[in-house]
Specification:
mainly alpha; two-stranded antiparallel ribbon; binds zinc ion
Length: 152
């Protein structure tokens, strides 16, 4: 669910701030949070799809958890932003996107990281929308809160 993706995006951004020192850390975090929602453009009923008109077409073209849920998209976006726009925020897009793939990898459905080339499946035991997901959300929220306290 999208709020769990936002929580993981926040967690990934807070942890990466220990290693990466962007010009503006708030812009950095904001980009990560947006990127954390991007992959579900391939899901017809996702938050991002119901918020942005016309995006439903993406879900029809790609199908859920296909190419848009592979590591290729964030890699390409990173390279395009880095070399095309000479922006260091490309890594933020990569991290945000990856946080989404990681959290989807905790679900029973799982994802194939290198779709469609081969199978490199990551899969967990959590069912989307279940009590377990809420617990994970809560846990990630608490960790984020502790990290924020340490950063300020
Ligand atoms: Zn997803």
């Amino acid at each position: 669910m999208y709020h769990t993706h936002l929580a993981f995006g926040l967690l990934f951004s807070l942890v990466s701030l220990y290693f990466i020192h962007p010009t503006n850390k708030y812009v950095f975090i904001a980009i990560i949070l947006i990127a954390a929602l991007l992959p579900d453009a391939d899901h017809e009923k996702s938050k991002i799809n119901s918020s942005i008109p016309g995006l439903k077409l993406v879900s029809k073209v790609f199908g859920h958890r296909g190419l848009l849920h592979s590591v290729w998209i964030p890699l390409c976006l990173w390279l395009i932003i880095y070399f095309g726009f000479h922006s260091s925020y490309g890594i933020a897009v990569f991290i945000g996107y990856l946080s989404h793939l990681f959290s989807d990898g905790l679900t029973k459905m799982g994802i194939n990281m290198i779709h469609p080339l081969n199978q490199l499946r990551i899969q967990g035991f959590i069912e989307t929308g279940s009590v377990a997901e809420h617990l994970v959300f809560l846990f990630v929220g608490v960790v984020c809160f502790i990290l924020v306290l340490k950063l300020v």
